Amino acid sequence: MRRMSLTSSPVCLFLLLLLQLIALEIMVGAHSLCFNFTIKSWSRPGQPWCEAQVFMNKILFLQYDSDNNMVKPLGLLGKKVNATSTRGELTQTLGEVGRDLRMLLLDIKPQTKTSGPSTLQVEMFCQREAEQCTGASWQFAINGEKSLLFDAMNMTWTVINHEASKIKETWKKDRGLEKYFRKLSKGDCDQWLSEFLGHWEAMPEPTGRR
Predict the structure, then answer these.
(1) In this structure, is the dihedral angle defined by the CA atoms of residues 43, 37, 146 and 173, taken in order, positive or negative?
(2) Between 75-82 and 86-106, two packed helices, what is the crossing angle to 10 degrees?
(3) C-alpha separations of 27 from 24, 58, 98, 127 in Å
(4) 10-204: CATH architecture
(5) How far apart are CA 127 and CA 190, in angstroms?
(6) Can you tell me whether residue 184 is helix, strand or coil?
(7) Pfam families in the record, alphabetically (predicted)?
(8) CA–CA separation, 102 vs 49, rounded Å?
């Protein structure tokens, strides 16, 4: 029987990438910043079509939604960040990214019809150690199904759900989109992480530093 290479399966590739991210995360001195977006193709009146949560080292400290178009601080770190000039830049960027992701969602043809809106859940992740970016990636889930992973460090795509293969090919051909993802995760995200580290390290242990 022919043995399958560990790298021949998209699922295996995804697991290997996750293991690499986990290994990086547990390194001494490694810190991470994560933006979780939930985008809906449509929403009822009074309900946001875009919601975002921002985590530093897995601690939630900021929330955003398209209805209010405002960043809501959570905890001591959130209050410290909210008091800086970066708040305005973050609010603008979260709004712009939300709109761009919604345009991507509207271009996706759902495999099955649903009574509710189509959804796109996106995780933008960056990691920093020894004063440099050591990880940057995007993970996409379509209608609750993990579908694609984009490694912004080496500009490669991994298909998690085979139904997303056509979407991957479409996005991969758009070099501008890939550069946009790379700029946000390896550029902006890393810059914010570097800035927020000063506030994080100044916080007392009981606030959630782990």
Answers:
(1) positive
(2) 100
(3) 5, 15, 31, 11
(4) 2-Layer Sandwich (3.30)
(5) 7
(6) helix
(7) MHC_I_2 (PF14586)
(8) 9
